[in-house]
Amino acid sequence: MAKQEDVFKTIVAHAKEYGFVFQSSEIYDGLSAVYDYGQNGVELKNNIKRYWWEAMTMLHDNIVGIDSAIFMHPTIWKASGHVDAFNDPLIDNKDSKKRYRADVLIEEEIAKFDDKIEKEVAKARKRFGESFDEAMFRQTNPRVLENQKKRDELHERFSVAMNANDLANLRQIILDYEIVDPISGTRNWTDVRQFNLMFKTEMGSTADGAMEVYLRPETAQGIFVNYLNVQKTGRMRIPFGIAQIGKAFRNEIVARQFIFRMREFEQMEMQFFVRPGEELKWFDKWRQTRLRWHKALGLGDEKYRFHDHEKLAHYANAATDIEFQMPFGFKEVEGIHSRTNFDLSQHEKFSGKKIQYFDPELNESYVPYVIETSIGVDRMFLSVLCSCYEDQQLEGGDHRVVLHFPAPLAPVKCAVLPLVKKDGLPEKAREIQHKLRFDFTCQVDEKDSIGKRYRRQDAIGTPYCITVDHQTLEDNTVTLRHRDSTEQERVNVDDLEKILAEKVSLNSLLRKLL
């Protein structure tokens, strides 16, 4: 675990050094859990958003997009349940003075039992080789059975406490399992209490006439209150979806792990409206559709898993997370929820407006049920960054740091490198870059030796380097270097656009989803 934490620290440092992520307000000693995206980070982030947006709106004839306002009428958040129920169960350690989410502490304890089981299985697999019967081993090995029993007992207590919102029992679980504060190492815990996560502000020209409003904690409600506007103006027929990318804000008390948990973050959400009674069928369909979207990036299928919710939100009748293996364990990057008709029914009740859909096939009106897919842009960014980072050992004892980004997501698609800064090579390099820049994010890099420039481009994940040398002036060919293999090939300048388009176009990813 310590080694993985060191790797994560190295990745965070790399993100700053190479212009991906900066601490917000750094020259004023920073603002906790708020980050800025640098010149390479914003390109990577925009490419992730484009991949999601086009997968949703271009590959589905019945999904359209909107962009709703961050500020909304405060009654919306009363209707949605956020004013009364948007809370985290928090617990403090009296010695370290640090605050933690009680549910996360218990989930991490459950994960320890899972890790013990997997270690036993891994050792047996190595010992028995191809003859290993994993299913039989899990059913008969005493150590596996013992850990599985302990894990299931804890899991059951945790599930009951969460669903009953039993804060005293959550604390008792932490005490009974002797869960310690990772900083102080003590079990000197306070009571568990709820904390509302919404930011408040005021809207109005005078103090007396100001209205108390909230910074939205999710983008979904902007979709729900615009549901009828989109349905009518777009002549949409059930089933159909509305997608949105936008900022959300949560006053996270336990904000940690770099950009994984922030107070200002960005979401990519899609609400899919279906007939009542068909929601679980669509829930299963979207679970698989969204997992396929993730796996198409080629980051490693084994790094993904589903995690069904122990406690369903007040609006849901089914919920699961897609978790990704970060350096600090499997963590949620996307949630798929069957939200029933809760949100639309609540807004119908609180607004006094009829929010129903007339189904011409059934010849009846009803409030649609909703399947939600919700992915954090920043968490997706972090999963891509962590999985693509490699400190690679090379022949001869040398090494390089390389980011193996999927080419369509890479911040810079190609770099044009004149071999020397004379003899007309820089001018030829800029001529090539000017030709390519209409279709690809392309740099010209002239400073330092060609080897150092290759390393610099590897460190920001540039998939292709184009080297202009004296032969280029003679026959109009360049050396095309591949980031991952470091192999080089000689190609004609006139063929560069076609070669690059096949490799770095977003279409190459989108076609995998069909």
UniProtKB/TrEMBL annotation:
Enzyme Commission number(s) of this protein: 6.1.1.14
Keywords per UniProt: Ligase
Domain of life of the native organism: Bacteria
Protein name as catalogued: Glycine--tRNA ligase
Organism annotation: Lepagella muris
